[in-house]
Amino acid sequence: MTKRKYCFEDFAPGDVWDIPGPVLTQQEIVEFASQFDPQSFHVDEEAALRSPYGGLIASGWHTVSICMRLVCDRYLLKTASFGSPGVEHLRWLAPVRPGDRLLLRLTVIEAKISRSKPDRGSVLHRWEVFNQKDELVMTMEGWGIFARRQHAAGA
Amino acid sequence: MEIKYYWEDFVPGWQYVSPAHVMTEREMLGFAREYDTQVYHTDPEGAKATAFGGLIASGWQTCSIGMRLMCDGYLLETSCMGSPGLDELRWFKPVRPGDALRLRSTVVEQTPSAKNPTRGTVKFTWEVLNQANDVVCLMVGRQHYRRRAPAQ
């Protein structure tokens, strides 16, 4: 079991973490989309050229899934977490293309102790995803539920 | 693929319910080991000791499966040009191996583009249902579609 390093108390409003991400290859863009989102501009290079995007772009679900992995690797696996009830204001602002390098910026917007379950608290993070040209390609706001430090063993 | 459905076809109240996709442990582990490596998604044994009491699918996989059901059901035969995003996304219930997921798409709102007479936007609710008819995941979002005929 991974050591619990982070708890509710470690996420304070205003905290910003930048997490460098991978360079996306055409092969992985097509592979993900072939499985989950086979719209022509995600899977077919020729058709994508004729689409409004002018070339192949990643499924938005692929972009967000890659960011989920970044969050897992950066802190979530070392956090006493109870999962997430959901996300608000998910926006795919600009296409992600083969060769793009992603960076995830996490900002804590809000952190509140649960009224009904005082052993835990909810943290609202803004996720901002930038490409190598510093263009914002995706944003969302997501809740995570984390154990408070004195109760972390139970999570 | 031939386009059969355009922006005009997605009138408020339009609804589609997909056939079921049965989730296997193998595909859940495959997705989670790549994208969402939390123990209750990647380790059937370790998951038993968590608050979920067993292996559950990554919420992002549930969304992605919903996307695939939409593609197979109708989206690839539409003039869809992509989505600007979701207003809301909720994971209400865990998805476990053997669960049979269906997608229910419902049109909430149909808006012509203010700038481009050849396009419009449709607001949907996309619900992922399990075999007990529970809504396990709810998405409220928009897609852009080309119009069959430009606005006059």
What does this protein structure show overall?
The complex is a heterodimer of chains A (155) and B (152). Chain A is built from 4 helices and 5 strands; from the N terminus they run E-H-H-H-H-E-E-E-E. Chain A is α+β, with helices and mostly antiparallel strands and 155 residues long. Chain A has a single domain (8-154), classed as Thiol Ester Dehydrase, Chain A, CATH 3.10.129.10. In chain A, strands 1-3-4-5-2 form a 5-stranded antiparallel beta sheet, with helices on one face. In chain A, strand 4 and strand 5 (136-147) form a beta hairpin. The model of chain A has no long low-confidence stretch (mean pLDDT 94). With 152 residues, chain B is of the alpha+beta class. Chain B has 4 helices and 6 strands. Chain B is elongated. Chain B starts with 14 loop residues before the first strand and ends in a 6-residue tail after the last strand. At the A-B interface, helix 4 and strand 2 of A face helix 1, helix 4 and strand 3 of B.
The whole-number mean of residue pLDDT values of chain B reads: 97
Task: Bin the strand percentage of chain B.
Answer: 25-35%
Helix content range of the residues of chain B, please? 10-25%
User: Biggest interface between protein chains, with counts per chain?
Assistant: A-B, 39 and 36 residues
* SSE string of chain A: EHHHHEEEE
According to CATH, what is the class of chain A? Alpha Beta
Separate helix tally of chain A:
4
Q: Describe the strand arrangement of the main beta sheet of chain A, using strand numbers.
A: 1-3-4-5-2
Structural class of chain B: alpha+beta
Architecture per CATH nomenclature, i.e. the level-2 architecture of chain A: Roll
Query: Kindly, what is the distance between the CA atoms of the first and last residues of chain B, rounded to a whole number of angstroms?
Result: 28 Å
**What overall form of chain B do the CA principal axes indicate?**
elongated
Mean pLDDT of chain A: 94
- Total strand segments of chain A: 5
Main sheet of chain B, how many strands, which sense, barrel? 6 strands, antiparallel
Cα-atom Rg of chain A, whole angstroms? Answer: 18 Å
Which structural category fits the helices and strands of chain A? Answer: alpha+beta
Oligomeric form of this entry? heterodimer
CATH superfamily of chain A: Hotdog Thioesterase
